[in-house]
Amino acid sequence: MESSKRKSNIPADKVTVFN
């Protein structure tokens, strides 16, 4: 889950995490 926080910096990556 910590990785998700780092990806949060990039909106595009955030969507990938949700997918």
What does this structure look like?
The structure is a single chain. This protein is mainly α and 19 residues long. It contains 2 helices and no strands. The protein has helices at residues 2-7, 11-18. The protein is flat.
Keywords summarizing the entry:
single chain, 19 residues, mainly alpha, 74% helix, 0% strand, flat
What's this model, at a glance?
By secondary structure, the chain is mostly helical.
Write the layout of secondary structure elements.
Elements: H1 2-7, H2 11-18
Q: What low-confidence regions span 5 or more consecutive residues with pLDDT below 50?
A: none
Number of strands: 0
**Integer-rounded radius of gyration:** 7 Å
H/E element sequence = HH
